[in-house]
Amino acid sequence: MLQRTLLATAMIGASFTTIAGELVIAGRDSSYGQAMQYIVDEYKKENPDAKVTLVQRPNNGLYESIVLSMREKTGNYDVVLMDDTWAPEFMANRWLAPLSEAVVDNDFVKAPFDIGRYPDATGNLYAMPMVGNVAMFAWNRATFESHDLDEPSSWSDVLQAAAKIDAASETSGVVFRGVKGNPIVTGFLPILWGYGADVVGSDGKATLNTPEAKQALETFLAMKQYAPRGVDVYNADEVRDSLQKGTAAMAIEVWPAWVPNLDNPDMSDVVGDMEIMAPPAEVGAPAPMLGIWQLAVPADSNNKQEAEAFLQFATSPAIQKALALEHGMPPTRESVYMDEEVVEKYRWYPQQAKALTTGKARPRIHNWAEVESVLGDFLQMAMMGQMTAEQALNQAQRRIERIIKV
């Protein structure tokens, strides 16, 4: 564990209020829960009189619990951890308390910080970014060099490289998540955006029935022939294992928490070989998908001042660095991404910071979860050959239009 002197040094100049009452925090379980527990423990060290209760729930249960509490104004929670896709609903319903300008810090990467504002990037701040998730693209430089291939700069390059590698070796050209719902959608979105298309346009209307979207999906579907058998049911673990074992040359979607051990010789066969970068783009600039986990204060909290102090502590440079080094959590501060100790452990962090800077959030609509579920169903049906790309997109378009009108 990092020495407390690191934390103490980083806190100089910052003022964190000692809690008078009890702070109740709603957070996730598993690795996110471990990270949040670390924050709570360190906060108690800095505030010996603090009373903090961390409630850990699985992802779906967390959303339901937060919504119920805030909708009914129970005041159960003082701090909530939330996916950035939940934020539009929470902010539009005025369920979150605005944060003071004291928490604004130019060290935060701008794109993930600004999605905490409402109704747009110039509005009031309602959430702070704690986990800087961004979808990256992984490729094996050693494998590419052995096949006389250059770094892919477009999705056409990816498809061509996958075909060449797959035909000339036992290595699969590409791997991705094929499970319906969130996994297959998050794999597809950077490709969709990379062709200049989107699920929902800036006017709030569905925009899937376009030539650009069809091209994107046809490219995605074509990748299956160069992927491992059974990729239709692949999830994060299978993608990670394929990369670490060197059985796949590329992954179209890699989240930071999946790959902290790519250079760990005890767990990886591709130490020093894998490169992590922003996903390619067929047209325009790359559009990495943001998957930010934010901290916010419910409007019905009775401990708003103390809760805001906790948010400042949890997103401070020292805590962000500790979470990266000890828990593999990607930071949201530029200074941590450039920290020598952090970069020594994760050599691709500068590229990750660049991807965060140009990152794109999923559509800022209230019912994204329902839209994502519908799109995921049709994407998988197309992936399994049950319908064409055009049929899948047209049917998804009609269903999503009905959802958005509700």
Give a quick set of tags describing it.
5-stranded mixed sheet; 3-stranded antiparallel sheet; 406 residues; disordered N terminus; alpha+beta; globular; 44% helix
Would you tell me the structural class of the helices and strands?
alpha+beta
Q: What is the topology, as strand order, of the major beta sheet?
A: 2-1-3-10-6
Rg from Cα: 21 Å
Using the alpha-carbon principal axes, give the shape: globular
Put simply, the count of helices is 17
List unreliable stretches of 5+ residues.
Answer: 1-19
Distance between the termini: 49 Å
Strand residue percentage: 5-15%
Average pLDDT, rounded to a whole number, is 93
Number of strands: 10
How do the SSEs run, as a string of H and E?
Answer: HEHEHEHHEEEEHHHHHEEEHHHHHHH
Question: Roughly how much helix do the residues carry, as a percent range?
Answer: 40-55%
Q: Major sheet: size, sense and barrel closure?
A: 5 strands, mixed
